[in-house]
Each structure stands twice: as structure tokens, then as C-alpha cells.
Amino acid sequence: MSKKSVKKVVLAYSGGLDTSIILKWLQTTYACEVVTFTADLGQGEELGPARDKALLLGIKPENIFIEDLREEFVRDYVFPMFRANAVYEGVYLLGTSIARPLIAKKQIEIAEKVGADAVSHGATGKGNDQVRFELGYYALKPDITIIAPWREWDLRSREQLIAFAEAHQIPIAKDKRGEAPFSVDANLLHASSEGKVLEDPAIEVPDYVYSRTIEPEAAPDKPTTITIDFAKGDAVAINGETLSPAMLLTKLNALGKENGIGRLDLVENRFVGMKSRGMYETPGGTILLTAHRAIESITLDRGAAHLKDELMPKYAELIYNGFWFSPEREMLQALIDRSQEAVTGRVTLKLYKGNVIVIGRESPYSLYDQDLVTFEEGAVAYDHRDAAGFIRLNALRLRTLGARKKKHGM
């Protein structure tokens, strides 16, 4: 499909300088009608200015879509991911990755609603987000046309972007002139920062980069004790107060922030093949992950728990690489969700200077049997003598190998 054949495109629009430039570039390059979609994922910014700027740039009111997706985001994306205890490369809680499939889904829904034949995003040609968005688009609408401006245009520097904006009367905030110190992506789960002052992995992250957490050293000297209640693997209450998914994560974010919890300085392996250094803040998610593993520790059978841990890196990699809508992710999700049927109960935690410390866990479905583990006299549920045969059977192959080594001097 040629550029001039695109009639209407749905743009993932933040209202910032880059996507405003993309909006105007789409109008001038493709001579098409542009529909803007702005998602409220809990990034903490007013979305009214995005509507105002879209209107200023000539978008019809009926072509401006702004949706509050916070509850859907946490309920249908964040919580299913946390049932899996998913972390990429051992530490990253996938805050950016998990938001992209929801945005892609809504763009496709809007495209079908307004009769658009194309969608567009503002991800660069070097990052992971271009892959995540576009895999989502294709999975949901295989014949959709995708416009990725950063792979098409010749605007290669911040100066060229500023010049384009000025030439087309696009408002430029004063702090956007010149080189930005770093880029930020935020939603209700996390805030991530990368680029510029963060590009040298040997240099400590400057204090001004952090936005979701205070320094652990500055956190209160007294620990904060909380309880989190779970039902079938999902957190449902804090300190006995039942909360919606988005409100619960919001509350955990506040608790994490004031206790300096959730900072991560990471060099990760991008799907496109390069390493990148980023700073992530996931205060509520860090608390939630610790609590979820704690309630699983007493409600999951050993075999189920270990299988989940074996599958988790694959599940996390699928999300990181943009395969949320793939059959293999859905298959893994079915297995994970099946494992959570008895993951119900309460976890008690201490939050203290960057640390999340489990101090208690209880469940009506607990597999922890005190009669089995006690060292006290009178326990009849476990016969210590049974262990001898168990050990000898498990040692059989080791004894056979040892005998061979002795015989042949190996």
C-alpha cells in the first residue's frame, strides 16, 4: 500500500512533542485523516492537554479518543502477569512491556470503529516497543497497515525535530528545546528512564531521575507493617480494606514510595539485539511480587511451584518480546491460572528502607502441616526411619558411579 492510499490512521498519541510531530507528519506525508488515541494507564499526567493539542493541530473532536484504562490494565494485564511471578532476566518487572498490548488492542478497536485502514506509533527503530506494538497490531488485525515514522522519516536529530515543529506551528515546551536529559515512560505499574545521562552504565543514576521513590536512606527509621489479602492469586485487600485492582496498586505504590522500595538500575538485552541501560521504579509491584511468592509458598504443591519457576523465564521473555497475544503465552497463562485456584490467604510484610520483608503468611488452603515438620516428641505423622530407604534409593545411581570410579581409578 502506497503512502497516498492511506485514508485514515489511528495514532497512539501522548500529546508530547514527538507524537505531536508525528501527527503533523502523518497529515503532510500521507495526506490522510488522523485519529488520536490517548490511554490513561496511570502515568500521573493530566490528559486534557493532549486533547487540547490535538484540537490545535486540526484533529476533529470526534476523532480524539481518550480512555481511562487503569482498571483494565491492572486487572487483565498486570495481575495475570504477577500470577506468574514474571521477571525478565531475573529482576525486571516488565512495566513497559505489559502496557503495550493493551494500547495496541485499543488502537485496533478504534480503527475498526472509525473505519481506519492504518495505525501508527511513536516508537523508535532501535527499541523494543516497535516490536511490541506491531506484533499486537498484526495479531489482532492481520491486514492492518502500520506506519512507523521513526523508520520512515529523515528527521534524525533533536534539532531537526524542533525545526519541523516550529515550521508547522507545533507548541514546544521550553524544557523540550535542545537535548532532553533522558526519556521517561510511566504507567501505574512503573516508571522507566533511559538515554542521555543514563547511557554510561558505570555512572550512578542522578538523584533527579527518580520520580516514584524516595532514597532508601531517607525512608522512615521505623518499619511499616502491612497485610495483603489474596484470592486465587490476585491481591484483593490491603490491611483488611478491599480495593479494586487499580486502587490496590495505587496504594502499594504510595507505601513503596515512602519506604524507598522498588528501584532498579539495569543493563538489559533488548529483543532487537543490543544492550541498554535503564532505571526502573516499581514500588507497588516489588511489594506485590514478594507477597505473592509468600502466599504461594504455603498454598502451592512443590511440583507445581517448581514447574512455575521453570516456565516463568519463558513467560517473561514472551511478554518482554511482545508476544502477549501469542498462543504459547495464552497456553502458559492457562497453566498459571490453574495453579492459582488455592492461592488465597493473607501475607504480613514489613517495609523498611528499600526492603520488603515477609513476617507472616496464612491461608485456609495451606499445605504447611506443623505435625509433619515439628521436632517435638509425640509427632506421629512422619516416621524418621522411612527416610533411610528413601535416601538409599536416591543414592543408587551415585553409589553405582562411585563403584565404577573406584574400580577403574577414575
Topology:
Blueprint: E1 8-12, H1 17-30, E2 33-40, H2 48-56, E3 64-68, H3 70-83, H4 100-114, E4 118-120, H5 129-140, E5 145-147, H6 149-152, H7 158-167, E6 183-186, E7 191-194, E8 224-231, E9 234-238, E10 241-242, H8 245-258, E11 263-269, E12 275-281, H9 283-299, H10 302-321, H11 327-339, E13 345-352, E14 355-362, H12 370-373, H13 386-394, H14 396-408
Parallel strand pairs: 1-2, 1-4, 2-3, 4-5
Antiparallel strand pairs: 6-7, 7-12, 8-9, 8-13, 9-10, 11-12, 13-14
Architecture overview:
- The protein is of the alpha/beta class and 410 residues long.
- It folds into three domains: 3-80 and 95-180, 3-Layer(aba) Sandwich (Rossmann fold); 184-300 and 342-362, Argininosuccinate synthetase, chain A, domain 2; 371-408.
- Helix content is 41%, strand content 19%.
- It contains 14 helices and 14 strands.
- It has helices at 17-30, 48-56, 70-83, 100-114, 129-140, 149-152, 158-167, 245-258, 283-299, 302-321, 327-339, 370-373, 386-394, 396-408; strands spanning 8-12, 33-40, 64-68, 118-120, 145-147, 183-186, 191-194, 224-231, 234-238, 241-242, 263-269, 275-281, 345-352, 355-362.
- The strands form three sheets. A five-stranded parallel β-sheet has the order 3-2-1-4-5, with helices on both faces. Strands 10-9-8-13-14 form a five-stranded antiparallel β-sheet. Strands 6-7-12-11 form a four-stranded antiparallel β-sheet, with no helix packed on it.
- Strand 1 (8-12), helix 1 and strand 2 (33-40) form a beta-alpha-beta unit.
